[in-house]
Amino acid sequence: MKSPVPIYDCHGHVGVHPDFPAYKHTPAEMICVMDLLNIEVLAITSTLACYNDCPRGNAEVAEALKRYPQRFRGYITVNPNPPGEALQELERWVGFHTPPLIKLHPDLHKYPVNGPHYRPVWDYANQTRAIVLVHTWDSDPNCGPLRLAPIAQEFMHARILIGHAGVTWRGYQQSMRVAEVAPNTFLDIAGSQSHRTVIEVAVSRLGAERILFGSDMPYLEAAVSLGRVLTAHIPDQAKELILRNNFRRLLEEGPGS
Amino acid sequence: MSKSGIDPALGEALAWNVFDANARVGHSGVHGELALEAPDLMNELDRFGIQQALVSHFAAEEYDAEEGNKALARDTGEFAARLTPAWAALPDSDSIQRLAARQPAAVRLFFGILKHNFSSVPWCAGELLEYLQANAILTLIAREDIEWNSLASMLENFPRLPVLLLESGYRADRYLFPLLRRHPNLYFDSSTYVAHRQLESFVERFGTDRLVFGSRLPLYTPGAALAALATARIPAEARLLIAGGNLRRLIRAETGGKQ
After folding, report:
1. Looking at this predicted complex, what is its ipTM?
2. Which residue, A2, A20, A242, B33, shows the most beta carbons closer than 10 Å to its own?
């Protein structure tokens, strides 16, 4: 099984994780899996930065971008604590991409995505038309999808990817409510739960243009997301948008678009 | 892409003779939008080329074991060649007698406080677990229904009982691996074993005998677990065993029945 179109994958990582063993996680091993499934481009965020240390983690991303510039895009992962450090980090890695890709993990950084420490980041994202991938989880006090609606409406030039689309069945419903009121938001389907019909419902409610393929590689199995999309009851054109065109279009839209 | 909705590459699953270890049927008070009655469940199995499934009933899980078993008999009866009941079981003698009359190939236990609310320790479930062990009846337990320590104790106390752990989750390896090494009658399903390259890494470490395919229908799409199996870099015969061969061995389906 392989994607019939080369995939642009909006959600990947570099690194390992504390809570279970990581398998075949080096960038070289990941590229072998990307080739196996036909993933052309993977946007990666540092797992080290999500859990523990943004400067060192983002340096790992820089190294992967340097080594595999054709296969990876790099998110700059920022931590709202201590206040002010996030902007320094965004400036340090400004060379990654224009517009920048930014990753927020309010769950692991234990700070609400709509809290004041994040506001400078949202201002920056708005000014630069950044793509901002936000980890979300159903109703979570720090990263429940519904918290993103007022942010997306206030910072309307930021392109916000609702990471994992809230994960659960209810999380998807919340994510779709956000996407319905905020046109600058997109659902990222990466996740450990594979509820039946949820992709069909999302395409029906939002249109396929608002849904992005995400794998969460090398945390989660990329074939799972691929299987969900390829076997969904949606038109082939919608599958192609989700697998490739939507995220590619976001990446190619310049700062003045 | 196929007009049928299945990627042609996933069509290869048709040749695997897939036997799904983890499916449920009937109305659900918890998962209303996703639950499927038997004919619709069959349609989903057909859509993904799944030949057979081991099925429990939401009515047993959410309401009453005996009522659920009656519903399971009714709902699976029409499709007996393809749907194998995983009966609910309670620890009292009367329930065990009723269970035995059904000549079960498999049971699914719901220990949870808000489900059937009993313990796996011998003073509580000893008679039931002895019966299941004596008759080599495959015993399904979802990870959310039993703590790791309780599972370990049960496996110690009933070493010949074949246990199939469902929905162990992708974070389970540091618990799962020691238990698998200690207890040769422990198996698990693939429905939530979805970390990056986890399935093929498991086969490289443990071989093929302990893992069985599970979809988690009707809550999850089989497209997810089938894709993980389809893309695992494992030998073809390993894929066939995981897809269905192991489960058929465990419920003795290949020899035409049970004891």
Report:
1. 0.96
2. A242
